[in-house]
């Protein structure tokens, strides 16, 4: 995942927290009765209790407002200001644009399904919320670059200077068992050939403290990942899913590699590459997206009233 994408997901996490808060607010401020909630004289309904001490709806919502209130309100103001600007400019995000962006974001994960699953399992962001946040970001980027012209010559020059940036790279999903000596590596291979489980062996004998507790699992890496042993990658990229190979001479140790999966990303079309470069160059000239949000809030006179937040 690129640095820019990591920044995006950090933003998404904050916004998702806001969505959770809003859901809670809507559920418990609507005035409807909820079975099992006790009404106390002179207070709001109780939503929970510890022994005989109730936690009231007002206490709960007040705590949520203290923790997330400003973020939620700023998110709502941003969304409305951006929507007004997009409407005024006649801008929108098509389903095709959204799917193309999902394809781009999924590239380093091997598939859209794997990407969506990782976002939900690692960050707790379901696909529907992921789509909403992506549409919003794309719309903000479209507004930011609407008045910036990038000519074909600029795109040609960029591609000449960065010929490999959009070349799809093979990825391998691997696990490794690292041991100190060649003799130990041969013993590991012999045990694997006799049917022992790779992950169990890694936990038992691997000296790699970063992967040992995870059964040797490194995960999905690109063929030229600078943080992995080149000897390890050169071997792994020649294998097929399910293959085990070794011993591989690392720096001062030896490794046995197991390939879970091999992913060959599809080649991008020339049109897609040029559009990606155009957008990248335009964004480099544009104001930052957070600055644009601020400008739009000011343009549409967004404000938070005094006394609303604790």
UniProtKB/TrEMBL annotation:
GO terms for molecular function: isomerase activity. The lineage of its organism: Bacteria, Bacillati, Bacillota, Bacilli, Bacillales. This is peptidylprolyl isomerase. SUPFAM superfamilies: FKBP-like, Triger factor/SurA peptide-binding domain-like. It holds the Pfam family Rotamase_2. Signal peptide: none annotated. Keywords: Isomerase, Membrane, Rotamase, Signal, Transmembrane, Transmembrane helix. Residues 169-261 form the PpiC domain. PANTHER family: FOLDASE PROTEIN PRSA (PTHR47245:SF1), PEPTIDYLPROLYL ISOMERASE (PTHR47245).
